[in-house]
Amino acid sequence: MPRIAEMTLDTARPGSERRSVCIALSLPEIDPKDSSGSTYRTLLEFGDFYKPMYIHGDGSLQSLGLALSMLRNLLEIHADGGWVLYYSGTDDTASPDLNLFGKALGP
After folding, report:
1. pTM score of the predicted model
2. Nearest to 72 by CA among 101, 43, 93, 52
């Protein structure tokens, strides 16, 4: 499935080794299990931290919007677990929500 957006970052908990994580969204597609053809799905990947998941919606725009909402939830869970995101190969920290949602999470 073609990806429409992806970003590779480093992540670590304080005092632990960094790990690379690729966060990606696929192009919404018609769900092959829906015979009516009205349900779409978008694949959301979050490295090896979470199992890749299809996010379903009534139409491609809703599927994509719900996938972005789920991404925000996963980023919150990641930060709440003590993980910090860094731009790859730097010590520059990325906003916990990657500034995708207009307002940074946390303090």
Report:
1. 0.86
2. 101
Q: What is residue 26's predicted lDDT score, i.e. its pLDDT?
A: 98
How many other CB atoms sit within 10 Å of the CB of residue 71? 22
Structure tokens at 22: 């690729």
Would you say 25 and 71 are in contact if contact means Cβ atoms under 8 Å apart? yes
Q: What is the extent of the structural domain holding 15?
A: 3-87
Predicted confidence (pLDDT) per residue in 26-58, tens digit: 999 999 999 998 999 999 999 999 999 999 999
pLDDT of residue 107: 45
Domain count across the chain: 1
Asked if residue 28 is part of any domain, the answer here is yes
